[in-house]
Amino acid sequence: MEIKNKILIIGFGKLGQKFASLSASVFDVHAIKRNPLKNPPIGVQVHYQNIFSDEFFSLVKNIDPHYVIYSVAADDANEDSYQKAYVDGVDRAMQALTDCRNVKHFIFISSTRVYGQEVEKILTEEDIAQPADLNAERLLRGEALVGEGVIPSSIIRLSGIYGGDRNYLIRLAKDPDLWPKENRWTNRIHEDDVAKFNQELIQKIDKNQGADNLILLTDNHSTPLFDVLNWIRAELDLKAIDLPAGPIKGKRLNSLSIQKNLYQLIFPSYREGYGKMLSDLNQ
Fold first, then answer.
1. What are the C-alpha distances in Å from 128 to residues 123, 139, 145, 212?
2. CATH number of the domain at 6-166+188-220+252-260, please?
3. What are the DSSP E strand ranges found in the chain?
């Protein structure tokens, strides 16, 4: 019987579940989650445990994974939740893995929120993140904890995730009264691409092909938010909204890692991604 390498997903939300479904046929997939799932993915061993419990360390030691994906999400947008999820939780995970013999690589799911600067240039992995708020600082501190550890690691900074029931922009497009007063750049990545990218990344690592230490995961199609909203309105046969004059706020992002790894996006831009979502809603 073939012995499969183990993947441990700490924080088993929708992204983790999608990734697990893709990887369960190749790896022995384990997940740690606080609250029970009604329909856990087939072929995945889900352990219902709080990472701040006394039993967390022994659980991780018994699983003894080869690869770890830390994808814990903050419960709320307040500073304490971010501290707990992205600093204290990361620290406990790294401590727990010191007792494991097999661990080869640690992946930390972070966010492009760490780029707080508003500049004319397009930001990439080569630009130093400059957090603009305390929650972004906590994300960056969590990244630093991972980087300071002895386990080989990759930081994956996700831009605005959409897909599935993440349909905020579709709902926003329908109600112009809720649109922000100023236009801004939006950077998107579909949840299916996040799952598939992580799957391919771990398969490359498992084949000793290496991995980047820092990965910016975005579709490389930074677009003014109002353009995206009006495109969605057009697909819904709704009248376009006149765009306000003035500069476009925010930041534009570009992933060098996607180009370097020759990763083929399932949804190369918001048009394909939201087009699929709108099509599914009409079925």
1. 9, 14, 17, 16
2. 3.40.50.720
3. 6-10, 28-33, 44-48, 67-70, 105-111, 153-158, 160-162, 185-186, 188-190, 214-217, 223-224
Residues 169-217: tens digit of each pLDDT: 999 999 999 999 899 999 999 999 999 999 999 999 999 998 999 999 9
- The CA distance from 122 to 251, in Å, is 7
Dist CA 109 CA 74 (whole Å): 12
Closest CA to 184 of 238, 227, 219, 217: 227
The answer to whether residues 44 and 10 touch, using CB atoms and an 8 Å cutoff, is: no
Cα–Cα dist 177/92, whole Å: 44
Asked whether 172 and 22 are in contact (CB, 8 A), the reply is: no
The secondary structure element, H or E, covering residue 78 is none
For the chain, give every domain's residue range. 6-166+188-220+252-260
pLDDT confidence band for 1 (50 / 70 / 90): low
Distance separating alpha carbons of residues 46 and 8, to the nearest angstrom: 10
